[in-house]
Amino acid sequence: MSMSPTDRLSIGQLAERTGLSVSAIRYYEAQNLIEAERNAGGQRRFMRSDIRRLSFVQITQRFGFTIEEIRALLQTLPEGRTPNKADWRQISRNIRQHLDSQIETLEKLRDNLDGCIGCGCLSLRNCQLYNPQDKARSKGAGPRYLLGDKPELS
Amino acid sequence: MSMSPTDRLSIGQLAERTGLSVSAIRYYEAQNLIEAERNAGGQRRFMRSDIRRLSFVQITQRFGFTIEEIRALLQTLPEGRTPNKADWRQISRNIRQHLDSQIETLEKLRDNLDGCIGCGCLSLRNCQLYNPQDKARSKGAGPRYLLGDKPELS
DNA sequence: GCTTGACCTCAAGTTAGGTTGAGGAATTAG
DNA sequence: CTAATTCCTCAACCTAACTTGAGGTCAAGC
Q1: Averaged pLDDT of chain A
Q2: pLDDT, tens digit, for every residue of B141-153?
Q3: Is the minimum CB–CB distance between A150 and chain B shorter than 8 Å?
Q4: Domain-embedded: residue B19
Q5: Would you say residue B6 has pLDDT above 80?
Q6: Closest listed residue to residue B55, CA positions, set B36, B74, B78
Q7: At what angle do helices B67-75 and B49-62 cross, to 10 degrees?
Q8: Closest to B143 (Cβ–Cβ): which among A61, A84, A119?
Q9: Of A87, A75, A91, A89, nearest in space to A33 by CA
Q10: Which range (A42-56, A72-86, B133-147) has the least confidence?
Q11: Is the pLDDT of residue A6 over 90?
C-alpha cells in the first residue's frame, strides 16, 4: 500500500480527491484544462498536481469564469503549469478586479432602480432601466453573463 | 389611419414597439408571460398594455431574473394584470432586495479572496474558497446562478 | 481464471432562452 | 385580382457545462 510521490492517479481516484465526477474530469480534459497520460491498457493516469489544478478550476468557476476563461487563465502561466503560490497570488488579483467590476455593475443598477422606484415609466423609451446605457442590444442577448457584458480578462 | 384605444396590435407591431423579435414574443406567449387573442384568420392580436408588460419582462430580465421567476412576479399581481405604477413600486422593492443580496454575496466572496491571496492553499479541504460555506454542493451544480444559490422571491 | 468493478469511446440528452427554417395560410398594397 | 408581406405551426438548432447510456475493455480480488 506504499505510494511514492511519482505514483499516478486513476480517474476515479482523482474524482474522489477533488469531489468532481468522473465525467466532469473527462470533460475538462476534452476542454484542455488538464492533460492525462495513458497506461498500457489505455486508461488515464493523472499526476498528483492535477488535484491542485482541478481545485483551481473549481474555485475560479465559483467566481463566474467560464471554461474558456479558465483555460485562458491557465495559459497565462509559463508552460501552462499548475498554479503555485506565486501564480495564485497574481491570478487572484486579476479575479479581484473581475469581482469588483461585477459589484460595481450591480450597484449602478441598484441605484438606477432606486431613482426609478415608483416612476411607473415602464413603457417609456428613455427610461434608464429600459434602455440601459447605449442601445447596443445586438450583443447576443440573454442574461448569459448576469448583467453587464462579458468580463474581459485583463 | 386613425386608431381608437381599443385597437389591437399584430405581433409585428408589438415587436417594433418593444424592440423584441417576433420569435421572442411567441416564445414568451408559450411561456405564459403574455396572452394573445386571435383574429378570424388565426393571427395573434395584442392589447396595448402588452407593450408595458413586455417592457417589464425586459427590465426584470436585466436584473437576472429567469423567465420562471418573472412569471411568478407577474402572478403576484391580482388577476395577473399588467403591472401599473403602484405594482411596480412594490415589485421594485422586491428586486432591490434581490440585488442587495447578490451584492452582498459578491462582497463576501471578495473578502474571502483577499484573506486568501497568496495562501496557495488550493488543494486544502478547509480552504474557505474551495469549500464555500456548507458542503452542500449537491444543489444542481454549475454557475447557473452566478455564485450563491438561486435567489428566492420573497 | 473468472467475476466484478472501474474504465474506455462516442452519441445523445439536459436546461435556459431563444433563433432558424420549412411549408403553408392570411393580409395588405396597388 | 394578384403579388408581396406578414403571419401561422412545428421541428430542429444554438451555447454552456455537463450527464447519461450503450456497448465494449481492463484491472483486481479470490
Answers
A1: 75
A2: 222 233 333 333 3
A3: no
A4: yes
A5: no
A6: B74
A7: 130
A8: A61
A9: A75
A10: B133-147
A11: no
Quick check: A68 CB within 7 A of strand D?
yes
Place of cell 479572496: B113
Whether B6 is covered by a domain: the verdict is: no
Residue with cell string 421567476: B69
Cβ-Cβ contacts under 8 Å between A and B: the total is: 120
Q: Does residue A35 register a pLDDT over 50? A: yes
pLDDT number for residue B134: 34
Q: How many domains does chain B have?
A: 2
CA distance B136 to B115: 23
Smallest CA–C1' separation from A41, nucleotide: D26
Are residues B123 and B66 part of one domain? no
Both A31 and A82 in one domain: the answer is yes
Question: Which B-chain residues 32-91 have CB contacts (< 8 A) with chain A?
Answer: 51-52, 55-56, 58-59, 61-64, 83-86, 88-89
Q: What is the CATH number of the domain that holds B71?
A: 1.10.1660.10
In a domain, A2, yes or no: no
Contact status, residue B25 vs residue B14, Cβ threshold 8 Å: yes
Range(s) of the domain holding residue B34: 11-95
Q: How close, in Å, is residue B47 to chain A by CA atoms?
A: 14
The integer distance in angstroms from the CA atom of A141 to the C1' atom of C23 is 29
The 10s digit of each residue's pLDDT in B20-73 is 999 999 999 999 999 999 999 999 999 998 998 998 899 888 888 899 999 998
Percent of chain A that is helix, strand, coil (3-state, to 5): 50, 5, 45
Question: Is position A144 within any domain?
Answer: yes
- Chain A: closest CA distance from residue B21 (Å): 11
Nearest nucleotide by C1' position to the A43 CA atom: C7
